[in-house]
Design goal:
This protein has helices at residues 12-26, 48-51, 74-82, 124-172, 174-181, 202-208, 219-233, and strands at residues 33-38, 43-46, 91-95, 103-112, 115-122, 192-193, 199-200. The chain has 234 residues and is of the alpha+beta class. The protein folds into 3 domains: 12-122, Beta-Lactamase; 124-172; 177-234, no CATH class. The protein has a 5-stranded antiparallel beta sheet with strand order 2-1-5-4-3, with helices on both faces. A two-stranded antiparallel ribbon has the order 6-7. The protein starts with 11 loop residues before the first helix and ends with a helix.
Length: 234
């Protein structure tokens, strides 16, 4: 937007003509705000974008322009009005409907003897970048939430498997605890009890527990065997 130049405050007609020209140029703009205000800041006229701030039930004209400026930026606008000759002409304000969500505008003031014109150009690029960043952050948050839920399910599944394996381990080692005390054995068939209701042959039991038999003699049997061998030689 071409910068607005301050006119000589003594040239009332020139200032009014400039305000009328701006108003006619921006009258139908739906994005650039224009507020023609009296010396107290009350809006005397506005354009389509300014009227939209109070539609459909309100009226922008007759309201103080400060009502449309975010509370944290009101002091900025008042300071600009009090010091119109500052070298930096453009400044930013957050403007929006009263009680609504404000948007960022790059603003300029054109002062004239009986008031001022405030023009605000929306910062589309800045807002678009902020919106894109917000969308990206929301997507990242959604991904992290899904990943956290997946990890949580995996942890619960692993915990269930660990509890099941622990139960199997306790059951399978029931007979080991019994061995420390006494291993039940059937008086008829010789099978040993290896579980709460499971019986197993002694040989199978030893194989299942990696215990193997080897042949040999105990001392008394060895003596008896040697004696028998001497008898057989005779």
């Amino acid at each position: 937007m071409t910068e607005l130049l301050h006119g000589d405050q003594a040239g009332i007609s020139d200032a009014l003509d400039r305000a009328r020209l701006l108003a006619s140029f921006l009258q139908n703009s739906a994005s650039v705000l224009l507020f023609d205000c009296g010396s107290e800041g009350v809006v005397r006229s506005t354009n389509q974008a300014g009227s939209a701030l109070t539609e459909p039930h309100g009226n922008t004209v007759g309201e103080p322009v400060f009502h449309f400026v975010a509370s944290h930026d009101v002091a900025t606008l008042r300071a600009r009005l009090a010091a119109p000759r500052e070298p930096e002409r453009r400044f930013r304000l957050a403007i929006g409907p009263p009680g609504g969500l404000p948007r960022s505008y790059e603003c300029q003031l054109d002062l004239h003897p009986d008031g001022f014109v405030l023009i605000g150009e929306p910062l589309f690029a800045g807002e678009a970048a902020s919106n894109l960043e917000l969308v990206r952050l929301n997507n990242d948050l959604a991904l992290l939430t899904r990943e956290l839920a997946r990890k949580s399910r995996e942890i619960e599944h692993a915990r269930a498997e660990a509890e099941s394996a622990l139960g199997d381990l306790r059951s399978s080692h029931w007979h080991l605890r019994k061995i420390q005390e006494v291993l039940p054995i059937c008086m008829s068939c010789g099978r040993v009890k290896t579980g709460e209701s499971h019986w197993q042959g002694v040989v199978d039991y030893l194989k299942a527990n990696a215990l193997f038999l080897s042949h040999g003699y105990c001392p008394p049997c060895a003596d008896e065997f040697r004696a028998q061998m001497r008898r057989d030689r005779r």
